[in-house]
Every structure is written in structure tokens, then in C-alpha cells.
Amino acid sequence: MLSFVMRRLGTMVLTMLCLTLVVFFLINLEPNLKKLAISQTEMRTTAEQLESWLQRNGYRQNFFIRYGQWLGVVQKQPNIDPATGQAVARFRFCNEPAVPTYSGVLQGDFGCSTKFKTKVSTKLFPALGSTGILMFWVLVTMVPISLLIGILAGMREGSRTDRTLSVASIATTATPEYVSGVIFTVIFASWLGWLNGSAASASQGITFYNFTLPVMTLAIYGIGYIARMTRASMVEVMTQQYIRTARLKGLSFGNVVVKHALRNALIAPFTVIMLQFPWLLTGVVIVEVMFRYQGFGYTLVEAAGNNDIDLLLGCSLVSVFIVLITQLISDVGYAYLNPRIRVQ
Questions:
Q1: Please, what is the Cα angle at 113 between 20 and 24, to 5 degrees?
Q2: Per the domain annotation, does 45 fall within a domain?
Q3: Domain total for the chain?
Q4: Contact 27/307 with Cβ under 8 angstroms?
Q5: What is the DSSP string of 87-106?
Q6: For position 250, which CATH number holds?
Q7: Would you say residue 304 has pLDDT above 80?
Q8: Which domain holds residue 203?
Q9: Inside any domain, residue 257
């Protein structure tokens, strides 16, 4: 198992390098650099002045040198003030050193946010914490309900309960977040007046009234998906020979389900549940913007809309890391739950 984990970790590092290199290339395309220069100067700035700004702030250096500087394996060079000839920091609002230094991702420096005028880590990690709170309550709501629905539907295939729960699961899965969010807001916030339609920000205090709608919107889609997968796994397990043997030995239906069928039926849903983390990262972008919840998704949209290159790179790195680490946990957990995989 240790060798398997080490191989996967090596694959993760290589994958992160390849993906961040691709993202770094796409973000630093010429149109994005020009938009960044315009946003940091004046709208009527001439092309020569824009080019001078890009040269002065290091955006015209060799692509691989800039990528190495972002990683922290190549020294960052300070800017040279053309008036005095003195070395000055690239972005003064980040307190960057005015001397050559190794300062990149490997040193814990994600760069400077040109939109928020602060270090990327100062903006990114609090936003991740806010999204972590949202994702925690989504999982707490989504996982038990979906497992219960899937188990109840799969226990007796073809029954009225199975058909009813299956139709409900398909309906929720077919409804995207931006549709269910609007429906919930209209019903619970506008018509009934029970819930606040905006989560605003986690820093302003999370309450049941301003946090329930974002959680419901994210959870409703995942509930149907996990429930369908759980039902399919439960139906397959209930037709196995050892389940029939247990029934012939006189065990009650409830004992057969709890002691024999349930553990084996939850192997496949476990993998699906772990893969909900990457999906939640994309889902929160829509929900956080819709409900103005200032988390990771909201920050990502702000960075993309304002050509904030360093913040976009930080968000991309976090997204890739979360996707890869959840897949690793999923594989290790699957091996522990399935003895056949563990033996192999």
C-alpha cells in the first residue's frame, strides 16, 4: 500500500506540473496581458506605454523563466526605475523585496493580486475557508439523505417506493444549480419569506436563514446522483448468492440488509462521494456568485473578470490539488473497503 501511495504521489506531482504549465500558458496569452496592463494603467494609455508597463513588471521575460519564477526555482528580479536607475519592487502593495530572491509557490508565495492589491494567499485562503464551511454543510446534508434514498430504493427493486424515489432522484439530477437556486429563492425567500436569499459573506456571520438556500442548491443535485449510484449498487448486491443463502438460513430481511448487503453496497458510492469534491468546486462558482457568498468560486470569478493573473494561477493550483488528492483518498479508501483490491 505504501508503494502504491508513493507512486500516486509522484504521478500527482507530475500531473500538477503539466496542468499548471498549461494554465500558466493560457493565462499569459497576449490578449490577457494587454487587458491586465490596461486595468493597471489608464484606459487612454498608448500602446507604447502599455508595452513599457509590461516590460517594467517582468511580463516580457522568457515564458519558462517566468514559470520558474512562479514555481520558485528561478530568482525573481526587481524592476529598475528608469528615472533613478534604482532597483524597486515589482508590486509595492505586496511588499515584494527589491533584491533578487527565490519567491514562488515552493516558498509559499503565490504572488500578488492586482485586483485586490494584496498577496494572493491573503485573499485565497480565507476564501477557501469560507467555501470549506459551505462544502462541509453540503456534504453533511447530501450524503446521509442520498444514501438513505438509494438504500430504500434498492432494497426492493421494482416496488412503488423504488419507482417513486428513482423518479425524484432523476428529477433532481436533471436540474442544474442555476435553475434550482432560482426556484428555491422564489419559493422560500420571495413567496414564503422564510429564508434570506443571500449568504453575503461568511465573515458577516452564518445563520440558518442566510445559509440554507446555498446549501440546498448545491446538495439537491448531488443527492439524486449519489442516490442513483447507491440504488444500482444495492440492487446488484441484493441479487448475489450469499444474500439468498442468508435468507434461506432464516435471517430477517432487515438483518440481511444491515449485516450482509449494506457494506458491500457502499463500496461504489464511497468512490462517487469522494469525487463530489471536484464537482463541488465547479458548483460553488455558480452558487457563490448567485448568492454573493464570498468564497473560492466568487474569488475565481472576480480574478477571471479582472485578469488577475497571479490569483487565477493560485485558484488553478488549489483546484488541481484538491481534485488529485480526493482521487488518491478515493483509491486508498476503495482498496480498504474491497478486500479483493487490497489483496491484489
A1: 20
A2: no
A3: 1
A4: no
A5: EE-S-GGGT--SS-B--SGG
A6: 1.10.3720.10
A7: yes
A8: 122-343
A9: yes
Q: Please indicate, yes or no, if residue 65 is contained in any of the structural domains.
A: no
Chain centroid offset of residue 184 CA: 23
**Neighbour tally for 109: CB within 10 Å:** 20
- The cell 436569499 sits on which residue? 197
Element (H or E) spanning 119, and its range?
Answer: strand 118-119
- Give me the helix-helix angle, 296-305 and 309-337, nearest 10°: 140
Instruction: Give the span between the Cα atoms of 231 and 236, in whole angstroms.
Output: 9
Q: Which of 95, 99, 105 lies closest to 72, judged by CA?
A: 105
3-state secondary structure of 76: strand
Q: What are phi and psi of 73, to 5 degrees?
A: -105, -5
Burial 111-126 (b: 16+ CB within 10 A, else e): bbbbbbebbbeebbeb
pTM of this structure: 0.80
Residue at grid coordinates 426556484: 183
Q: For residue 137, is pLDDT > 70?
A: yes
Please check whether residue 282 is in contact with residue 288, taking contact to mean a CB–CB distance below 8 angstroms.
no
What per-residue confidence (pLDDT) applies to 343?
Answer: 42
Exposure of 224 by Cβ count < 10 A (0-12 exposed, 13-18 middle, 19+ buried)?
buried
Quick one: DSSP state of residue 202? G
Long-range contacts of 200-208 (CB under 8 A, 24+ apart): 200/292, 200/293, 200/294, 201/130, 201/292, 201/293, 201/294, 202/129, 202/130, 202/133, 202/134, 202/293, 202/294, 202/295, 203/126, 203/130, 203/294, 206/133
C-alpha distances in Å from residue 273, one per residue of 135, 334, 336: 12, 11, 16
Does pLDDT of 256 surpass 80? Answer: no
Residue 152 domain flag: yes
Give the model's pLDDT for residue 208. Answer: 67
In 3D space, the residue among 209, 234, 322 whose CA is nearest the CA of residue 275 turns out to be 322
